[in-house]
Write a structure and sequence with these properties.
Structural class of chain A: alpha/beta
Largest interface: A-B, 32 and 21 residues
Structural class of chain B: mainly alpha
Helix content of chain B: over 70%
Oligomer: heterodimer
Number of helices of chain B: 16
Largest sheet of chain A: 6 strands, mixed
Shape of chain B: globular
Distance between the termini of chain A: 33 Å
Shape of chain A: globular
Number of strands of chain B: 2
Largest sheet of chain B: 2 strands, antiparallel
Radius of gyration of chain B: 20 Å
Helix content of chain A: 25-40%
Strand content of chain A: 25-35%
Radius of gyration of chain A: 17 Å
Order of helices and strands of chain B: HHHHHHEHHHHEHHHHHH
Strand order of the largest sheet of chain B: 1-2
Distance between the termini of chain B: 52 Å
Number of helices of chain A: 9
Chain lengths: ~230, ~350
């Protein structure tokens, strides 16, 4: 059974459809990528799943329960964490406070576990998160999400603005996170980066899934990549 | 000597005393400092009439300090600037008055009833929290004035005494009221200490910083804002009740004067919102200046006080708390920390 099961999901802004009926499945321990050109609806898809964007129709099942229409904080409490685009840390709060907020709903205050995964943050705990580098901010955002010990985490544009070395470093950590039991849905404009770590992927174009399958198979289809990806 | 209803005062504070990250338990030394903040200042203010024999002026000061802390709770921790904050003060004052006049209660019970009335008003106004920024500020102001107009309506004279004012001299007890005011200041400061150190306070700061991200972090944004709103309304209602109890004879325009909101906000801003002691010290300093200028140079009062506030806001936007934080940071980076390590 899928951990996350999305069926015929539609949504939109001001009457204009952004998603035209998306199906998506994520299983335990799995990393799934959603790639596509700018404006294809990737961030909207994640928002609709996590409760930030109203769902017009369709279903979003988490652990078999339909969560479409629930508030974001309630979906989060059920084990789904969303790391929004551009990290959206609480810039005026310290790294420690950001981490604590990640575990707020679950009542988790022990930040030691995530610091073991992200030792870079140890020396930055009392630094305002707005003063971190882009890479550190991304690590902090992911670490904050992991504070809730989620079953599944949606990460939007995780490589945006990062140096290749830092992006690669984060990719390695993402694989470790999935191996530790948190499934991941990665959205990224850099398809090659996302597909390099994901086991399966969906290609989104103008609000519709136009292709899906194992990442290796999609990466080998140069015609497909040329047609749909930047 | 201006009462909160008719005069303003001001002030602001220091703040900051470094706040430990909520989640790490503050040490014994830190708790001792918080306890001192909560207890010592109200006790000193309570004892001051033995040195400075003007209890009414001091009571007005304490009431304003409570209002400044109330503004601190709602603005400092959620970002909602309540220009209509006086509405809760006035509701508390009139709730107290109605209890004395119609229910024939004593002052203590009447003040508590006043707080219930102001809280009920806050519940009714909860939908205002859907607004943000200037829209919220103006809507809260309009709501407070709407309540004022209802109370001052001559057709309700049999119940509210309309525009003709109320007389609570039957229960006049300034000493007890002053004691309650000092206790209320301790409670208000304790509330802020809690918000500075608790997970709930941290969640409020997150909501203020970015409501959307706060919601995906699992925070119920509407609930968090609502609790802060109600807490600030209770403080203002109790302050209004105590003020009414002492003032004894007053009119609707006395306890619904916009000046009350303005002064409470200025005191909090000058001291530094989000800090524990900022609004207290800010209130004491500005209120003292208000009294000094008003007595020594009454002809220049409006000009001098207004200019002072503008200058302070231009050059000290973070309030006195930011100065205290900067000084503390400098001290830690230089001699102080080196000495301690040695």
């Amino acid at each position: 059974m899928s951990l996350l099961e999305v069926r015929a999901l539609t949504t939109g802004y001001r009457g204009g459809a952004v998603l035209g009926g998306v199906d998506l499945d994520v299983g335990p321990y799995e990393i799934v990528a959603v790639v596509g050109p700018s404006g294809s609806g990737k961030s909207t898809l994640l928002g609709a799943i996590s409760g930030l964007v109203p769902v017009a129709s369709g279903s979003v099942r988490l652990h078999g329960r339909d969560v479409a229409g629930l508030a974001a904080e309630d979906i989060m409490a059920l084990g789904l964490v969303h790391v929004p685009e551009r990290r959206r840390l609480f810039a005026g709060l310290t790294v420690r406070e950001n981490l604590l907020l990640g575990g707020w709903r679950a009542g988790r205050r022990d930040i030691g576990r995530v610091l073991e995964m992200f030792p870079t943050l140890v020396g930055r705990l009392e630094t305002p998160s707005g003063a971190l580098s882009g890479g550190e901010q991304q690590l902090c955002a992911i670490a904050r999400g992991l504070m809730a010990d989620p079953a599944i985490m949606l990460i939007d544009e995780f490589s945006l603005g990062l140096a290749p070395v830092m992006a690669h470093d984060i990719l390695v950590r993402l694989a470790d996170i999935a191996a530790g039991g948190t499934s991941l849905v990665l959205v990224d404009q850099d398809a090659a980066t996302a597909l390099s770590v994901a086991e399966r992927a969906y290609i989104l174009e103008s609000g519709f899934i136009v292709a899906s399958g194992p990442s290796g198979k999609l990466l080998a289809d140069h015609a497909l990549l040329d047609r749909y990806l930047d | 000597m201006p009462s909160p209803a008719v005069a303003g005062t001001g002030a602001a504070t220091t703040a900051g005393a470094a706040t430990p990250a909520p989640g790490t338990r503050p040490g014994a030394r830190r708790w001792a400092a918080w306890a001192a903040y909560v207890v010592v200042i109200p006790v000193l203010l309570y004892l001051t009439p033995h040195v400075y024999n003007n209890q009414l002026l001091l009571l007005n000061l304490v009431v304003y300090l409570v209002l400044a802390q109330g503004v601190n709770v709602i603005y400092g921790f959620t970002g909602y600037l309540p220009f209509g904050y006086v509405g809760f003060f006035g509701a508390g004052a009139y709730g107290t008055s109605m209890a004395v006049i119609h229910l024939h209660t004593g002052g203590t019970v009447a003040v508590l009833i006043g707080a219930v009335v102001s809280t009920a008003m806050a519940v009714v106004l909860l939908p205002l929290l859907r607004l943000t920024g200037a829209y919220f500020a103006l809507a809260s102001l309009a709501a407070s004035q709407a309540v004022y107009l209802v109370i001052a309506n001559p057709s309700l004279t049999s119940f509210t005494k309309g525009p003709y004012g109320v007389d609570l001299s039957r229960v006049f007890n300034p000493n007890l009221a002053y004691l309650y005011a000092a206790i209320l200041l301790a409670v208000a400061t304790a509330v802020v200490v809690y918000l500075r150190n608790s997970a709930f306070g941290l969640s409020l700061r997150a909501v203020r910083a970015d409501p959307l991200t706060a919601s995906v972090a699992g925070i119920n944004v509407a609930r968090a804002r609502g609790i802060a709103w109600l807490a600030s309304a209770v403080l203002a209602g109790l302050a209004g009740g105590i003020s009414a109890w002492v003032t004894s004879v007053f009119y609707p325009e006395t306890v619904f004067a916009i000046n009350i909101s303005v002064f409470a906000i200025v005191f909090a801003l000058f001291g530094g919102v989000g800090s524990v002691l900022g609004p207290v010290f800010g209130g004491i300093i500005l209120y003292s200046l208000y009294e000094y200028i008003g007595v020594s140079s009454p002809q220049y009062f409006q000009f001098a006080y207004g200019l002072l506030i503008v200058i302070l806001m231009l050059f000290l936007p973070g309030g006195l708390a930011s100065v205290a934080r900067a000084a503390r940071s400098l001290w830690e980076r230089t001699g102080g920390r080196v000495h301690r390590r040695a």
